[in-house]
Specification:
The complex is a heterodimer of chains A (112) and B (113). Chain A has 112 residues and is mainly beta. Helices cover 0% and strands 52% of the residues of chain A. Chain A contains no helices and twelve strands. In chain A, the strands form three sheets. In chain A, strands 2, 5, 6, 10, 11 and 12 form a six-stranded mixed sheet that branches. In chain A, strands 3-9-8-7 form a four-stranded antiparallel sheet, with no helix packed on it. In chain A, strands 1-4 form a two-stranded antiparallel sheet. In chain A, strand 10 and strand 11 form a beta hairpin. Chain A is globular and about 40 Å long. Chain B has 113 residues and is mostly beta strands. Helix content of chain B is 0%, strand content 51%. Chain B contains no helices and eleven strands. In chain B, strand 7 and strand 8 form a beta hairpin. In chain B, 35% of the residues are buried. Classes of the chains: A mainly beta (112), B mainly beta (113). The interface between A and B is medium-sized, with 22 and 21 residues.
Chain lengths: 112, 113
C-alpha cells in the first residue's frame, strides 16, 4: 500500500528565510505527486503537481518541488517565505490507483 | 463554475444521533473522495466513490459509517449513532478521473456534544 511521510511536524521560520519541506513516499510503480496548502480555517488548495517530464515543478506563489525518483522524494521549496505563507502543507501521492494518500502535514509558521 | 460544495459547514450532534454530510462535486467530475481531518493528524482517506459505486472504502470504519453517491444528487457521508470521537473536519474532493489532482470542498466541521 502506498504511504507518504512528511518529516517535519512544525516548522518555524522568519520572513525571507528559505524553506524546504520534506516528503517521502513508498510505492513501487509510477506515481503522481502533489503538494496542497491549507490556510487557517480554509480548505485545501493545490500548490503544484508532478505527473511526468521535468522533475523540477514550479507551482503558485513561488513554490517549487523536485521529484527525485531514486530517493522516493518530492520536497517542497521556496527561496524566501512571507508571513502569508503561514499554513499547513500536505504532500500527497496517487499511485495510479483509486485514491490519493496524504502525509500528516507540516505546519509552517512564518514570523514577521 | 462552482467548486466542490459541501454542506453544512458546521454540524452539531448529540451522542447517539445521526450525522449526514453532503458533497456536490464540481461539474464534470464523476469521482468523489471523502477525507477526515483530526487535529494534529492530517488527512485520512475514508472512501472513494463514482456514480452509484463504492470503489474503495478501505479507510471507512467498519461500523456506523456509510457513503453513497447516487445517480442523481450529492454524495452523502452518513454517520450513525455518533460518538465524541467522530468530531472532526470532513472534507470531500472531486476529480474528473483517478489520475488527476483533486478539488476540495470547504469541509464540514462535525462537533459531537
Amino acid at each position: 500500500a502506498q504511504s507518504v511521510s512528511q518529516h517535519n511536524h512544525h516548522v518555524i521560520l522568519s520572513e525571507a528565510a528559505s524553506l524546504e519541506l520534506g516528503c517521502n513516499y513508498s510505492y513501487g510503480g509510477t506515481v503522481n505527486l502533489f503538494w496542497y496548502v491549507q490556510y487557517p480555517g480554509q480548505h485545501l488548495q493545490l500548490l503544484l503537481k508532478y505527473f511526468s517530464g521535468d522533475p523540477l515543478v514550479k507551482g503558485i506563489k513561488g513554490f517549487e518541488a523536485e521529484f527525485i525518483k531514486s530517493k522516493f522524494s518530492f520536497n517542497l521549496r521556496k527561496p524566501s517565505v512571507q508571513w502569508s505563507d503561514t499554513a499547513e502543507y500536505f504532500c500527497a501521492v496517487n499511485g495510479g490507483g483509486n485514491d490519493m494518500r496524504f502525509g500528516a502535514g507540516t505546519r509552517l509558521t512564518v514570523k514577521p | 463554475n462552482a467548486g466542490v460544495m459541501q454542506n453544512p459547514r458546521h454540524l452539531v450532534r448529540r451522542r447517539g444521533q445521526e450525522a449526514r454530510l453532503r458533497c456536490s462535486p464540481m461539474k464534470g467530475h464523476s469521482h468523489v473522495y471523502w477525507y477526515r481531518q483530526l487535529p494534529e493528524e492530517g488527512l485520512k482517506f475514508m472512501v472513494y466513490l463514482q456514480k452509484e459505486n463504492i470503489i474503495d472504502e478501505s479507510g471507512m470504519p467498519k461500523e456506523r459509517f456509510s457513503a453513497e453517491f447516487p445517480k442523481e444528487g450529492p454524495s452523502i457521508l452518513r454517520i450513525q449513532q455518533v460518538v465524541r470521537g467522530d468530531s472532526a473536519a470532513y472534507f470531500c474532493a472531486s476529480s474528473p478521473g483517478s489520475d488527476y489532482g483533486y478539488t476540495f470542498g470547504s469541509g464540514t466541521r462535525l462537533t459531537v456534544v
